[in-house]
């Protein structure tokens, strides 16, 4: 086995971990793959003969790459959907399977990706590496040029923003979650009758104009009418997950980890009596979103 083959095999042993770190940092599978490939290129250009812990070395490298990508994204926020430019490796796919990304996002939690996207780059790195991958603060600190104590504070602040606080008791959240989960399952599965059964006969749905396709806010009412509208959003429902929305259970739709719209529900006696579909950027920014643990 030559040296090049051995290095490739050692890198492949860590690829899955590096992609997991990168995806949670960036919220985009294509960007995560780019970060991992850049880490591979840097490994090939580096002398790692004295490196005892290659996995730790690679995690540091890919984390710094992701941090630079996040900072670049912050400076050109209007172009955040564009992939980060990097060299390509022979055999690297230029497109990412949307189904593969949806599966990965579902396993991570879209609500978490949305909330991470709201953190500053240094906060995001500190939280992801420490809370999700158990990297010690003294190893994270040099990556963001902070002291371990300051890095701990960044992670703590990020944790508070991500976790949030429910506005109702856990028992009520559990009941809300049961109804919202059923709504999402019926929408994803195209089960019209199950969806109608969850809606109050006089349910009202309000959607702001950014939802489209109408140029003005939309108001529809009645279980059958609202259910028909939901059936038209089956594809969108694939990139939707439950989240805490202003302290109660709602749904966040976030293709590629970027918040697109939110559904806030009003429930009475186990039935949905109101749905507010929010997509206007200024309204989305005002929402208090958090990961749902119940």
3D structure, described in words:
By secondary structure, the chain is of the alpha+beta class. The protein folds into two domains: 3-163, Butyryl-CoA Dehydrogenase, subunit A, domain 3 (Up-down Bundle); 170-290, Nuclear Transport Factor 2, Chain: A, CATH 3.10.450.50. Helices cover 56% and strands 15% of the residues. The protein contains 13 helices and seven strands. A seven-stranded mixed β-sheet has the order 2-1-6-5-4-3-7, sandwiched between helices. β5 and β6 (271-278) form a beta hairpin. α3 packs antiparallel against α6 and α10 packs across α11 (223-231). The termini are far apart. The model is unreliable at 77-94 (pLDDT under 50).
Number of domains: 2
Q: What global shape is seen?
A: elongated
Low-confidence stretches: 77-94
How far the N terminus sits from the C terminus, by CA atoms, comes to 51 Å
What is the number of beta strands? 7
> Mean pLDDT score, rounded?
82
CATH topology of the largest domain: Butyryl-CoA Dehydrogenase, subunit A, domain 3
The helix/strand series, from N terminus to C terminus, equals HHHHHHHHHHEEHHEEEEHE
Largest sheet: 7 strands, mixed
